[in-house]
Amino acid sequence: KLPCDSIRNCSIVSPEDILYLEADGPRRITVHTRDSIFQYNAYLKEAAKQLNSFLYCHRAVLVNPSHIRSLQKSPGRVILDNGSSCVCSFRQFQKLKLYLEQQQEK
């Protein structure tokens, strides 16, 4: 669970509720959930260690693979199950595509 500061309050966010995390400057992460957006003070690399099931889709974005609906190659985007999307680099696109194909085979 991650402690996140919104503008009005502080809450604990369960990893299952997180769609993706985005580095927003030095030591600042924006956490995107279905219902809200929070700020979190840490390095993205630290969050990646805590959320070991999350995958990088860009050097500044960690995505929760359980919320991925599809991948869009050009421009590189990850489409999430709530309809939102986040950026995906070409290199990470290939890794995510392979990961999703392996998950479908299971």
Strand and helix layout:
Elements: E1 2-5, E2 10-13, E3 18-23, E4 29-33, E5 37-40, H1 44-50, E6 55-58, E7 61-63, E8 68-72, E9 77-80, E10 85-87, H2 90-105
Antiparallel strand pairs: 1-2, 3-4, 3-7, 4-5, 6-7, 8-9, 9-10
Class inferred from helices and paired strands: alpha+beta
Counted beta strands: 10
Helical residues, percent: 10-25%
Lateral strand order in the biggest sheet: 5-4-3-7-6
Mean pLDDT: 87
Using only C-alpha atoms, the radius of gyration works out to: 13 Å
Enumerate how many helices there are, as a single number. Answer: 2
- Overall geometric form: globular
End-to-end span in angstroms? Answer: 27 Å
The low-pLDDT segments are 5-9
Main sheet properties? 5 strands, antiparallel
Order of secondary-structure elements: EEEEEHEEEEEH
Q: How big a fraction of the residues is strand?
A: 35-45%
In short:
The protein has 106 residues and is of the alpha+beta class. The protein is 22% helix and 40% strand. It has helices spanning 44-50, 90-105; strands at residues 2-5, 10-13, 18-23, 29-33, 37-40, 55-58, 61-63, 68-72, 77-80, 85-87.
Keywords:
3-stranded antiparallel β-sheet, 2 helices, 106 residues, alpha+beta, globular, 10 strands, 5-stranded antiparallel β-sheet
Overview of the structural elements:
- The chain has 106 residues and is α+β, with helices and mostly antiparallel strands.
- It is built from two helices and ten strands, in the order E-E-E-E-E-H-E-E-E-E-E-H.
- The strands form three sheets. It has a five-stranded antiparallel beta sheet with strand order 5-4-3-7-6. A three-stranded antiparallel beta sheet has the order 8-9-10, with helices on one face. A two-stranded antiparallel sheet has the order 1-2.
- The termini are far apart.
- About 5% of the residues have low confidence.
